[in-house]
Amino acid sequence: MITRLSLGAVGLAGLAYGAWLLLGTGWSNIVAAVEWLAGGVLLHDGVVAPLSIVVAALALRVVPSSVRARVAAAAIVIGTTATQALPLFDRPGAKPDNPTLLPRDYVTGWLVIVALVVVVSAALVLLDRVRARRS
Q1: Between the CA of residue 65 and those of 13, 54, 62, 73, 97, what are the distances in Å?
Q2: What are phi and psi of 90, to 5 degrees?
Q3: Closest Cα to residue 88, out of 113, 105, 112?
Q4: With 80 as the cut, is the pLDDT of residue 4 above it?
Q5: Rounded mean pLDDT of 77-100?
Q6: CB 3.0–4.6 Å: which of 63, 72, 102, 111 could bond 94 by disulfide?
Q7: Which of 100, 97, 98, 57 is nearest to 75 (CA)?
Q8: pTM surpassing 0.70?
Q9: What is the CA radius of gyration of the chain?
């Protein structure tokens, strides 16, 4: 209980500090932050969540029940990394005179992560099958 209260207090302190910093940036930045946050909620609720439900419903029909947990975990990791990587794919803010801004090939990096997740998930499915046959 003390740990939860302590973590909650730290979280509230961080929230208060962030709000204080935001309030010090001026009205136009506050409005931009609210618009950005509202846009994220609308994008999630209007696009991401319904798309996830459709994909999950289709997967239930196609994916065998023995591997559904592994497929679901892989989908969550891939989806989460995609939401972080997609804004960087078109390299906003990159400048030719400053190569240190967005210096990586983010599409390739994300594809490597996707490949690793698929390979690890497939290896875990195979490991599950080997364990099931042994027992």
Answers
A1: 44, 18, 9, 14, 53
A2: -95, 10
A3: 105
A4: yes
A5: 81
A6: 102
A7: 57
A8: no
A9: 21
Q: What's the token pair of residue 104? A: 């990586």
One-letter-per-residue 3-state SS of the chain: CHHHHHHHHHHHHHHHHHHHHHHCCCHHHHHHHHHHHHHHHHHHHHHHHHHHHHHHHHHHHHCCHHHHHHHHHHHHHHHHHHHHHHHHCCCCCCECCECCCCCCCHHHHHHHHHHHHHHHHHHHHHHHHHHHHHC
**Residue 38 corresponds to which tokens in the numbers above?**
């509202």
* Encoded tokens for 2: 């003390």
Give the model's pLDDT for residue 11. 96
**Tokens matching residue 127:** 């490991």
For 93: left if phi > 0, alpha if psi spans -120 to 50, otherwise beta; the answer is left
Reported as a single tens digit per residue, the pLDDT across 57-76 is 888 889 998 899 899 899 88
